[in-house]
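[[Sequence with tokens]]
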Amino acid sequence: MHHHNHYYGHAHILARYCGLSPVAPPRIRGYLQHGWNVGDGYNPTHEFFDGAWRFVWSEAPARRGYALGRRNYTPVGAPWLYLLQQEPKLGAVPEDKREGTLFFLFHGWEGGKIQGDHQRLIDEIRETEPGPVTFSLYYTEYDRPEVRGAYLDAGFDVICFGRRGFSYLGTDDQFLYKQLKAMRRHKRVAGNRLASAMLYGASVGCDIAVYGDPMLMDGEDPRFGGDARVRRLWPELVGKDVDQSTARQIVGQELGQDHVLPPKELRRMLFDGSKK
């Protein structure tokens, strides 16, 4: 129904789980939450058709949406959790072979660039991380030579998992597969803002951390409350040395672990009427 459903290959992962084509997934009959979100699962300007279903990861965004007078929320669990069920060993290495930190820079999007002190962040990472650092940039920053070059010059291994796509074009349907393989070979996953990647990392056994210059994005919508709200509501997940047991409990709730559905039920809910 909406091209956001294809972001990061989410529709492809869910279609595969349901026994449908992962290459050309049928349309999802509603709006799928495409990233961890401190609102109701969607950006504040997202427009909806009246009566459409809103498939969110967990109960929290649904509650926030109902508080705003919106309706038709159904928690189904994050697409990432369905990927883990399908790929329980993808990229896995023995525990004693996992090393280093995979660090995610808060990223912009096609309509806004980030602004911040990259050297300050580099210095803080060097002071904090005990092992090698792999630095993940979304393509919007990876394609900016001054940003990519700063982290390469710092001696970090700089990688990009691809593009989430836009208007059904350019979607790298292997985006999360590549991210999963990278996470399973690292001991830590960190970022300068709490985001989906930290939750994903915790779900596959990585220690997580959130620290450094949170940076700003051009045109960032203030209605979510910004990074200050995140730090106020999820203080247990922010810091250089968080309690990992507590973090994993919270992560399970935020990803919607208890809402993961079996294939037939998920297919009925998302792809009712679709054919293989």
Q: What stands out?
A: The mean pLDDT is 91. The chain has two domains: 3-87+256-271, 95-251. The longest helix spans residues 244-255.
